[in-house]
Write a structure and sequence with these properties.
102 residues, Rossmann fold, 4 helices, globular
Length: 102
């Protein structure tokens, strides 16, 4: 899966990853597809501590890790639902969702 995502994104990976699952395997895959200098947003809540390869992901790839705290639950769900609906589209090579204006 990682190789397919990187191949689709081109260059060296996607520029932004947003994890909403808190799942260790998903977080590690997200870090693997993230391009050097990219941004990883941790919005999910893991059930337990997660072991990450800080040297390779943070130091060598110079990624930015961003945590989300105090988000508003219903607004977050509504925005996610809207982004996943017909109003959003995948930006080619960007690895992020772009909302289309009505």
């Amino acid at each position: 899966m990682v190789q397919k995502i990187v191949a689709e994104a081109g260059l060296r990976g996607v520029t932004t990853v947003i994890d909403m699952s808190g799942n260790e395997a998903a977080i590690k895959q997200g870090l693997d597809v993230l391009a050097p200098g990219g941004t990883f947003v941790l919005a999910g809540i893991p059930d337990e501590d997660i072991k990450l390869d800080v040297l390779n992901h943070s130091v060598y790839k110079e990624i930015k890790l961003v945590g989300i705290y105090g988000r508003t639950l219903w607004e977050t769900w509504n925005l996610s639902e809207w982004l996943l609906g017909s109003q959003a589209q995948q930006a080619p090579g960007a690895g992020i969702m772009i909302a289309a204006a009505n």
